């Protein structure tokens, strides 16, 4: 993310255009700084004649995305605990032991719930709660 306000975290948007290109619209790129937006455009350019200096970047703050502040429960999670909901979001569920430490912490934080169904005794599918599914920070 690019910054934080009282209302939430801000993901900055930059209007990026290559000088001399016929495309009058340009491209919107999400990046924390103008330099990173310029570099992103430079890496994705499909023309060898483009130089770093030929890329113009201006702020497009009207297109910024504002996310809610990170919940304290989410802030307390370690990297493994944060990657598990990401996996669960992609696959719809996570199968593991019912006494798994990571799942226990996520359940305590209210981010996953045990479905009570599994292939073996002591194992179950865990799914994200509505709260976790709405969090953009995971």
Average pLDDT level: 80
How many DSSP helices? 5
Quote the beta fraction: 25-35%
The sequence of SSEs as H and E is EEEEHEEHHEHEEH
Strand order of the largest sheet: 1-2-6
Find the structural class using helix and strand composition.
Answer: alpha+beta
Give the total of beta strands.
9
Q: How large is the radius of gyration?
A: 21 Å
Helix fraction bin: 25-40%
Query: Kindly, what is the distance between the CA atoms of the first and last residues, rounded to a whole number of angstroms?
Result: 12 Å
User: Biggest sheet, in brief?
Assistant: 3 strands, antiparallel
Uncertain stretches: none
- Dominant shape: elongated
Give the topology, please.
Elements: E1 3-4, E2 9-11, E3 13-18, E4 27-30, H1 34-44, E5 55-59, E6 65-67, H2 72-75, H3 79-91, E7 94-97, H4 101-108, E8 112-114, E9 123-128, H5 130-134
Helix pairs in contact: 3-4
Short description:
The chain is of the alpha+beta class and 138 residues long.
Describe this structure in words.
The protein has 138 residues and is an alpha+beta fold. Helix content is 30%, strand content 26%. It has helices at 34-44, 72-75, 79-91, 101-108, 130-134, and strands spanning 3-4, 9-11, 13-18, 27-30, 55-59, 65-67, 94-97, 112-114, 123-128. The strands form three sheets. It has a three-stranded antiparallel beta sheet with strand order 1-2-6, with no helix packed on it. Strand 1 and strand 2 form a beta hairpin. The chain starts with a strand and ends with a helix.
